[in-house]
Design goal:
The protein has 8 helices and 10 strands. It has 231 residues and is an alpha/beta fold. The strands form 2 sheets. The protein has an 8-stranded mixed β-sheet, with helices on both faces. A two-stranded antiparallel ribbon has the order 5-6.
Length: 231
């Protein structure tokens, strides 16, 4: 058993937090084969972690919030110009392998889940990553993208060219005010998001789309809750 497994083995059935290879893991465990991974840029504050634990109980699922990854590199599927300067690194394939072979394997072993029903939810660039990962790999029962960065260069075209979807259940949400951004790169986010929804539906996916109140940085817990309801 790995270091991660040893540290988690005695901590199931409660809210625990761990740092593992620079990643922060906040784990709300529940005696279930269902496990929801949520990718976030930063660790949630304590009151939101408490809400996450409540959601775990309500939906009878393990919930693992993963944060502090290399945001601009780990979550981008190919290189592209960054929003301000430099470029996005395009290391999503390596990060997905890391999740599958290390994080998922060890967490699920420590939680004694032999046949996991995995779900993946991501915010912003992590929402883009979640849809990309769900399309490519047979890992997830459902995928959620909250304010997904579907403005990313070439993403809609890539999705259009995918003949087969590995995951067929998606929840996609967008804040109604997100298109009001002053950042030119994000200005078409509503049209870009709707294009992604239409492509997924045309491929036969079961897609729940939600135009929610607020903008990109609206409170995250209600949006996670809606994702879980859609699954």
């Amino acid at each position: 058993m790995s270091y991660l497994g040893k540290n988690l083995y005695l901590c199931i059935h409660m809210m625990t937090s761990r740092t593992y290879h620079s990643l922060n893991l906040d784990i709300a465990s529940f005696d279930s084969s269902s496990i929801v991974y949520i990718l976030l840029p930063h660790r949630l504050p304590e009151e939101e972690l408490s809400s996450l634990e409540d959601l775990s109980t309500r939906f009878e699922t393990n919930i693992v919030a993963i944060s502090e990854m290399d945001w601009n590199n780990d979550l981008t599927p190919w290189k592209a110009p960054a929003v301000k300067e430099g470029e996005f690194g395009g290391h999503a394939s390596q990060f997905l392998d890391r999740l599958k072979e290390d994080i998922f394997f060890n967490l699920e072993h420590s939680l004694k889940i032999s046949k996991p029903k995995r779900y993946l939810i991501g915010l912003s660039l992590a929402g883009l990553f979640s849809v990309w990962a769900g399309v490519r790999k047979e890992l997830f029962e459902g995928v959620g993208a909250i304010s997904g960065s579907f403005w990313y260069d070439g993403f809609a075209e890539w999705l259009q060219n995918q003949a087969e979807l590995k995951c067929v259940r998606f929840y996609i949400s967008l804040g109604e005010k997100e298109k009001e951004t002053k950042v030119k790169r994000f200005a078409n986010i509503e049209a870009d998001t709707m294009r992604v929804v239409e492509i997924l539906m045309a491929r036969g996916a079961d897609v729940t789309f939600d135009m929610s109140e607020g903008g990109h940085n609206s409170p995250i817990i209600p949006r996670i809750e809606k994702s879980l309801e859609s699954f």
